[in-house]
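dude i think i finally got it to work??
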Amino acid sequence: MRKLLIYLIFLFGALGLGYFAHQVKPDEFPELLTIDTDYVISYQEEGRFEVMMFTNQPSHALFQKEEVLRVIMKDQITEVMFELSLLDITQGTKEVYLHQAWTKMIFGFRIPYFSDDIYLEDMTLSFELFDQQEYLIRLGKFSLYASYPLLDWTHLSGNKQEGELLSRLGTIYIGVSSEEFQIRSVAIGSMNDLRFTHMEDELMITVPKESFLLFNPSIHITTEDGNEWIIHNFLYVIDHMLLKESGPLINHYALY
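look at this
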């Protein structure tokens, strides 16, 4: 009987300690992750532009549109900067990274109209909140193509280079008439004079490796007659495990 009593005391003691440890578990601090990405967009009528971030606390003020006072895009190299209009913030998919659950947050902005192309080699967003907190967040590279006529294409597709883990395009295939368009050069953002072949009405573009994600870029094409054309943004690559495969490209921020 005494042994049974001692056993019960130890059992309930262990359960009590477990419950106490669970209750005093430290709060999860709000954090933010971004992945260095090559954002290449073409200006469309609504001027919409989206960026992605990840957080372990979607309820934080940074992800509530009504709490955001101002957003400034800035190149940390050239110090070119301009203000963006925040349109919406939506929740995307969830991922597990470093034993934590992270929610993708998609920020939709309206970008101001520019008559010339813009290139930012070290793009950051500066957020100012109504509670006076400020955050400077690195996102990667940014290119904006001004107004160009649309290239008449019949199909678009793309894939990653063989063995590539990053969500980065390696080859792009575009159906475009070889007779109507004699192509001189192809560019994607700051990557000019890309290698390409144009045979039997299919343009195949080779994208070099860089330490940036690249999955839905706009494409700039110049033909032999000097005319310039654009292909609007298109989602060529879909990956569902961005964080797990992008370790060296991830930027980590604490939120307050």
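The domain at 31-147+239-254 is CATH 2.60.40 (Immunoglobulin-like).
im so relieved honestly
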